[in-house]
Amino acid sequence: MKATAKAHTNIALIKYWGKRNEELILPTNSSLSITLDGFYTTTSVAFDEDLSEDIFVLNNEVITGEAYRRVSRFLHLIRETAGKQNLYARVNSVNEVPTAAGFASSASGFAALAAAGTRALGLDLTHEDLSRITRQGSGSACRSIYGGFVEWNMGKREDGTDSQAIQIQTENHWDVRVAAVELNSKMKKISSRAGMKRTVETSAFYSGWLDSIPNDLKEMKAGIATKDFEKVGAVAEANCLKMHATTLGATPPFTYWHDSTMRVMQTVQEMRKKGIPAYFTIDAGPNVKVLYLPENEEQVEKILKDIPDVQNVTLSKIGPGVTYL
Description:
Blueprint: E1 2-14, E2 19-21, E3 26-27, E4 31-48, E5 55-58, E6 61-62, H1 65-82, E7 88-95, H2 105-120, H3 127-135, E8 149-153, E9 164-169, E10 177-182, H4 192-202, H5 206-226, H6 229-248, H7 259-273, E11 278-281, E12 288-292, H8 297-305, E13 312-316, E14 323-324
Parallel strand pairs: 5-7
Antiparallel strand pairs: 1-4, 1-14, 2-3, 4-7, 4-8, 5-6, 8-9, 10-12, 10-13, 11-12
Helix pairs in contact: 1-2, 2-3, 5-6
């Protein structure tokens, strides 16, 4: 009753921002992402009849508090699915992602946990079934089950049985690169969950955000299908800015950006003026991801590393889905 799985983070080109059901993690809109090979989590899950509670070790540190409770609740969901509610597990996870800093650590973390946990209990699940379970640990994690270009269909049903991710193109479809620009690896002050909740409940701009999603998705999928980098980049950048604008319309207003975030954004826009096609996107954190093409990699990396306050730049290709080790 042991298994090990590896899952990669993903970066949303069309953002997931808001839930219509907090308990089942059902989103208010569909989203679309690419899986990255540069950031990942490797997790081993071992169920043991001698254990009286779950044990969670992350990067060689025993975890307690809310992070532990989230993992234990998710393991209970897997136990219920397998009909083995009385078994507890030791979870050992190594995270090659800055935690809670806007680099999607929960996406790779819960995808790896779901894959290893279900495999350890002998569940033989399709990727869609695994995606539905993973969604209930962390919404964006359901997209990390797959490699390449992935759409999370929000679904319509109240029980969440039609809310799962599907792969729309494999990692071999198109060689697009992503530079992850690390400005601040500290934990953010407002979690994604808390930020979403405040925005959905109070933002004056939220309805406009939801109204814009169907067209953004249509344009994004068309751009990916035809490998139109300018279209994909422009839609991703605009969608990111709209998402972050909703936080400024919340009560009280908040933002995940730092002044260094703005510097990177402006530098990327300057790159385009100089003929280097590059576009930014930002999740719930200060750090920036920059989309570019492989022929411009050397220039893009050098320009980004020269920006003040940039601590690190990690270059990624489009990555694979979950693998078992």
